[in-house]
Amino acid sequence: MQQDLIARAEAWLAEDPDGDTRDEMRALIDAAAGAGDPDALAERFSGTLQFGTAGLRGELGAGPMRMNRSVVIRAAAGLAAYLKATGQGGGLVVVGYDARHKSADFARDTAAVMTGAGLRAAVLPRPLPTPVLAFAIRHLGAVAGVEVTASHNPPRDNGYKVYLGDGSQIVPPMDGEIAAEIAAVGPLDSVARPEDGWEVLGDEVLAAYLARTDAVLSAGSPRTARVVHTALHGVGTQTLNAAFARAGFPAPVPVPEQAEPDPDFPTVAFPNPEEPGAMDLAFATARRAAPDVIIANDPDADRCAVAVPDDGAESGWRMLRGDEVGALLAAHLVRKGATGVFAESIVSSSLLGRIAEAAAGVGYEETLTGFKWIARVEGLRYGYEEALGYCVDPDGVRDKDGITAALLVAELVSELKEEGRGLTDLLDDLALAHGLHATDQLSARVKDLSLIPAAMDRLRDHPPTTLAGLTVTSTEDLTAPTSSLPPTDGLRYHLSGAYQARVIVRPSGTEPKIKCYLEIVLPVPTSADLPSARARGAELLTSLKRDLAQAAGI
C-alpha cells in the first residue's frame, strides 16, 4: 500500500508544471518514505478535489486534493471538452482572476488550455472584481467564463468558478457533465497548452462595465452619501472608486490598511465582512471620518456589507445583516417603480416575499441556495441572498455584484439623508408594515468533514419537536425534490406558537461548515412596540441557536 501510494505521488510529481508544488510533493514523498509522516501524503491522494458548487474551491498545495496548476489544467481541459461536445467548440471563453496566490497562473493555464483545444480565449487585463467577469461574458458574447477566486475563504484557498454563455454560474446537470469530462482527461502532457495565442483584454471591458453601473441609479437622484469603504485586501477599491466617481458621489474614504490587494490578508483572520473582527479597522476609520455609512466588499467584490451608526454599540457602528440590506434594497427598488420578479434563496428572510406581495407589478420566487439558481429566475429584476449577495442589474450581471449594490446603497442613503432619516428608520418602517423579521445564523466550522453528514443524519434520525419553546409543526427533507425546488442536502423546519419561526440546516457548498439559518417573525402594532419586539426577537434567536446546536450535536 505504501509503495503504491509513493508510486502515485511520483507519477503526479513527474507531470506537475509548477516548481513550488513539485518541491512540496518531493518533501511529502521523502517524509512518507523515511521516518516522517506518511499520513500527510496519504491525505493528498485520498480522493480528488470535487468539481461542484460552480466549480472548484480548496486549499492550495500539491496533489489531487489541493488547488494547484495540475488540477486547474485538468479542470480547464474538461470544460473545453464539454464545450466542444455541446457544439460550442469555436466560441470565446473569458477568464478573470483575483489577487490571491496563484490566481494569475491559473488564469494563464486556463487560457492556454482553451487555445490548445481550439477555442478562443480572452483574459481580463489584471485582477478585477468577479462581477466584471460575469458582465464580460454577456458583453462579449462568450460561450463560457472562468473566474479564478476563492471569494472570502482563508488566504491559503483558491477556487475556480465556471459560468456558461448566459452569464450565470453552472447548475446540475452541467456540473456533473463537466466533472465527467475532467475525470476523462489523460496525462497532462496530452493536454495542449501553447505559450500564446489568446487575447489579453484592455480596459475597454472594464469601461463598459462601469458605464453599465449607471443603469442602477435613477436620473437626478441625490448623490450626497459619504462612505467609508474597505476592500478587505481584495480587488474592489479601484473599481468601486471609479463607479462612485462616474455617478457623482463623494469619493469613498478608504480603510488604508485594507485598500490594496494582498493575498495574505494580514489584518483579518478571515477576509469576510461577516466574521468577527473583520470590520474593526473600518469602524476605526469611520470614527475618524464620520461618514453616513460604511460599505465593505469581500476580496473578489461580489458581496457588499453595510454598517450604520449606532450610539449603543461599543464601536459606534452596527453591521446590518444581509437580510436587512436585502429588504432595504428591495424597498428602495419598489419606491423607484421597479417591476418584475424579486427572488431570493430559501435561506433568506421571508420579508422579501411580503414586500413583493404588497408592491404592484412585482412577483416573487424562492430558489435553492446560491446565485447560480437566483440568476436563472425568469423575469428577474432583483435577487439577493442573506450572505451579503445582491443582484441589482440582472440584465448586466447575472450574479451577485458588490459594486452596483454599493451604488444602490449609497443612493438610498442619500435619499433618506434628504428626508432627515437613515437606513434604520426605513427598517422600522418595514417592521411596522410587514412584521419584524429577526434573522440570525448558526454555523460550525469543522476540520473533520465527516462531522457534517453526521450532524445531518442526527437531525434526520432524531428530528426536534420543539425549539425555543415553539412547536415544530412541519419538517421538510429537501433531498426530496418539489414542484418548485430541485433536490438539495438540507432540512427545513416551520415552527409556531406565540410567534412564527423557520429554521433551515444545510452543509456549506464552499466551506467546511454546517450552517443553520434562523428566522422569527413578530407582529409590531406600533412604533412604540419596536424596541421590545427587537429584544424579544433577539432572545428567541439565542434560544433557537442553543436548542438547535444541541439537537444537531454541533
Instruction: Specify the oligomeric state.
Output: single chain
Number of domains: 3
Instruction: State the separation between the terminal residues, measured CA to CA.
Output: 35 Å
CATH topology of the largest domain: Alpha-D-Glucose-1,6-Bisphosphate, Chain A, domain 3
Mean pLDDT: 95
CATH superfamily of the largest domain: Alpha-D-Glucose-1,6-Bisphosphate, subunit A, domain 3
Question: How many β-strands, per DSSP?
Answer: 21
CATH class of the largest domain: Alpha Beta
Q: Which architecture name of the largest domain does CATH use?
A: 3-Layer(aba) Sandwich
Helix vs. strand class: alpha/beta
Shape: globular
- Cross-sheet strand order for the largest sheet: 1-5-4-2-3-6
> What percent of residues adopt helix (DSSP H or I)?
25-40%
Beta-strand content estimate: 15-25%
Largest sheet: 6 strands, mixed
Can you count the helices?
A: 17
Rg (CA only): 24 Å
User: Which stretches are poorly predicted, pLDDT < 50 over at least 5 residues?
Assistant: none
Core attributes:
single chain; 554 residues; alpha/beta; Alpha-D-Glucose-1,6-Bisphosphate, Chain A, domain 3; TATA-Binding Protein; 6-stranded mixed beta sheet; 6-stranded antiparallel beta sheet; 17 helices; globular
